[in-house]
Amino acid sequence: MVKHSFIDQYSDRDSFIHKLDPRTKFVTTLLFILVVVLTPPNQWPAFALYLIIIAILILLSTVPIRYILKRSLVIMPFVVMIAIFIPFFKEGEVAGSYNIWLWQVSVTYSGLQVLINIVIKAWLSILSLIMLTSTTKLPHLLNGLEQLRMPRVMAMILSFMYRYLFVLVDEVMRMKQARDSRNFGGKRLWQIRTIGNMIGTLFIRSYERGERVYAAMVARGFDGQSRTLDRLNFRPADAYFGVGLSLILILVSVASLLY
After folding, report:
1. How far apart are CA 110 and CA 4, in angstroms?
2. Could you tell me where the beta strands, DSSP code E, fall in the chain?
3. Is residue 245 part of a domain?
4. Structural domain count, the chain
5. 97 Cβ partners below 8 Å, 6+ apart?
6. What CA–CA distance (Å, rounded) separates 55 from 238?
7. pTM value?
8. Which residue segment(s) compose the domain that 71 sits in?
9. What does the buried/exposed string (b/e) look like for 237-253 if buried means 16 or more CB atoms within 10 Å of the residue's CB?
10. 64 domain residue, yes or no
11. Is residue 2 situated within a structural domain?
12. Would residue 5 count as lying in a domain?
């Protein structure tokens, strides 16, 4: 069974955040990420305020906190994997030295500070993006991005990716079930060869499905422009929310830069 409620699972709830225009949420999310990134590393009170702001928005959205934290922790290991080597290569006062086989590596305090700073900024940014996708239906979000002058081709690609990603996942699960039913085993080389054949088969099936879908769309009058029944409506509440949150973020950012 194909599940279509993965990315925007809680987007149908009736909260103040859900009712905001997708363009308002996207612009404020972008501004939040920008001020978080520009905040100096040693301004811990500013990061605490950013966390309080995002926590208040999560409570207003009625999206389960456990769900947001769980999704953020899925992404954070990739950030840590990229930044984990910074303390070993950043110059500065040595915090510790370790012998690893034939190499002696040193960890610096400045490198640790950079690592912690990257992790905190990445986590706050990820929380804001999860809030955006969890409270906004993806078709509405793509429609808002297109009205914000996002290239139509990119919006169309993201729309098809979201629509058929679950179909491809279901296809992979059927191929895996067929493989396991044939007593998948043998030597390591045989297993790698089987997985490679599955990847090649999946690519061919995806290509053929894309051709069939495009031919069906052209036969039904597709002209390269997506159309939706729901129209976006920018209300006074969007203006109040956007201006208020933007002023708070700018004040916190300016205060962190000056003091």
Report:
1. 45
2. 94-100, 103-108
3. yes
4. 1
5. 104, 105, 106, 107
6. 19
7. 0.78
8. 16-258
9. ebeebbeebeeebeebb
10. yes
11. no
12. no
